[in-house]
């Protein structure tokens, strides 16, 4: 009876990690193919191999969606080279060990190692570490602070001004290779904060600043029946997030390996992800395509034009290269020159502007003329 009881207990422990927590006495291994599932069975955490190459990763994907869609990867730049790997709690951290029990990834938290901790997968898709006896929202670590290529509802992009943490997206190297790719999507803070898409370290697209409803260069980010966009800027944070008004609707934002920022929504009737919108939208969305003092019109040929009072810097501009932009036809004359409104424009890059919110349009014009 004693032997049978011990065997049953061991068998139960070996296959019990289907709850949403991982304790310090439990572990996940590739060979046993165990996973952690969020309470509402929306997300699942486990090891996966995205291609035929012998590279294993720890990641999170949708549990309820038949098409395996990964939303977060822990060891994207340090994959396991064979089918031997373990996820466990050690010294107050989540760690991934390779076949030689050498850590290849860790959460690197600095909690009180004397207090027992657990790792927990929430229905938001957030993997958190907390003290065992504390069910509050005070986490020692959370995966939402370290995004991969996907932004989920309630997940933030931007700066935590208290800790200096910058949350941003980094694309995959290719569609089935989670290694850090060439593109990143980062919030640049200034007088008016806006998102920049970078190819390596060079800007290729920007959203324009937030106008209270959307980023002005993203008209596709209009109001929706099931999505609420939110931009917060105060002493504690500068961040962007979105919320879903329907719990049964799954939607995500993704930075693709081709450098496209995309919104996908799951359509249950067709069992596939539907692309709601994508940016950059067209060639005119490319950063600094036409150069200074110019504007871009996708419906004309050529698409680059000088604003009124300016002409191409180089005579061959319209035929060959627009990057030189435009220059004044006549020297600046502060006594006679006047301001003209430019409609349907994305506001210029505001990283170097000076803003005085106390003055009106008349005083602003006066200062600019000086």
Automatic annotation (TrEMBL):
Cited CDD domains: B_lectin
SMART domains xref list: B_lectin
GO biological process: recognition of pollen
Alphabetized UniProt keyword annotations: ATP-binding, Cell membrane, Disulfide bond, EGF-like domain, Glycoprotein, Kinase, Lectin, Membrane, Nucleotide-binding, Receptor, Serine/threonine-protein kinase, Signal, Transferase, Transmembrane, Transmembrane helix
One MF term in the entry's GO annotations: ATP binding
Keyword Lyase belongs to the record: no
Annotated ranges, domain Bulb-type lectin: 21-142
Keyword Transmembrane recorded: yes
Subcellular location: Cell membrane
Endpoints of the signal sequence: 1-19
InterPro entries, sorted: Bulb-type_lectin_dom, Bulb-type_lectin_dom_sf, Pan_app, S_locus_glycoprot_dom
Protein's membrane topology: Single-pass type I membrane protein
A Gene Ontology term for the protein's cellular component: plasma membrane
Protein name: S-receptor kinase
Source organism of the structure: Arabidopsis halleri
Taxonomy of the source species: Eukaryota, Viridiplantae, Streptophyta, Embryophyta, Tracheophyta
Gene: SRK
